[in-house]
Specification:
225 residues, mainly alpha
């Protein structure tokens, strides 16, 4: 019961944060009169997708066909990097000078955090569905693997301009380009370094967001004493 209450509060937080982001962007669009940063809406929508897929996974039961569970999981894994990809939109900070830079920075950080929150919520659902009865070590390995692959996905999205749909509709090109990347040692080093750093940052943020706050009420109670 407590878990459900906490999950509902987190969902309300994510919705409120997303609404705030859209409101800030809307105010900027109205003030500037141009469609600058409008792509943030699309990226935020893509950040919601892993959560929507995770809800489908949550509805599966022991009687659900295994292949269906596997397809849901693969689909979720393909879309999950979108929740963290929005961080890289900070790269556009110097492109527009219509408003003070601090405004755009705060807006981009807000969108980035919103995307991460949706992604973290989806990861928690998948983790509870498939690894709740597993040992702590298995959960840690799963989380680190997901975040490492997320780092790889962010590289492919930002620098190779791939998106989640390409896996379904442009398989031949992805195969050829993947082969080229695997033959390029320098590119592999770059991707690995980027993936490791993203994995580390996302792991600490995920731990802080879901695990430290579970201990917060007791800590605050002790502090008030």
């Amino acid at each position: 019961m407590k878990l459900n209450i906490r999950a509902n509060k987190t969902l309300l937080y994510a919705i409120a944060l997303s609404a705030f982001c859209i409101a800030v962007l809307s105010a900027r669009l109205i003030y500037v009169g141009q469609k600058e940063y409008i792509f943030l809406c699309k990226n935020l929508f893509l950040a919601w997708m892993p959560y929507a897929i995770a809800l489908l996974i949550k509805r599966t039961t022991e009687q659900t066909v295994y292949i269906k569970k596997l397809l849901y999981f693969i689909l979720w894994l393909l879309f999950f990097p979108n929740s963290a990809y929005i961080i890289t939109d900070i790269y556009h900070l110097d492109e527009y000078k219509s408003v003070p830079q601090w405004f755009d920075l705060l807006m981009l950080l807000s969108f980035s955090w919103a995307g991460l929150v949706w992604g973290f919520m989806s990861l928690q659902i998948v983790q509870q569905r498939f690894f709740e009865k597993r040992r702590v070590k298995a959960n840690i390995i799963f989380i680190i693997t997901v975040f490492f692959l997320t780092g790889v996905g962010i590289y492919l999205g930002r620098y190779e301009r791939w998106n989640s749909w390409d896996v379904l509709f442009d398989v031949h090109y992805l195969y050829e380009r993947s082969y080229e990347i695997l033959q390029d040692t320098e590119t592999l080093k770059y991707i690995t370094g980027m993936a490791i750093l993203y994995c580390g940052v996302l792991s600490f943020l995920y731990y802080q967001f879901f695990y430290l706050k579970q201990k917060a009420p007791a800590d605050y109670a002790d502090f008030r004493k």
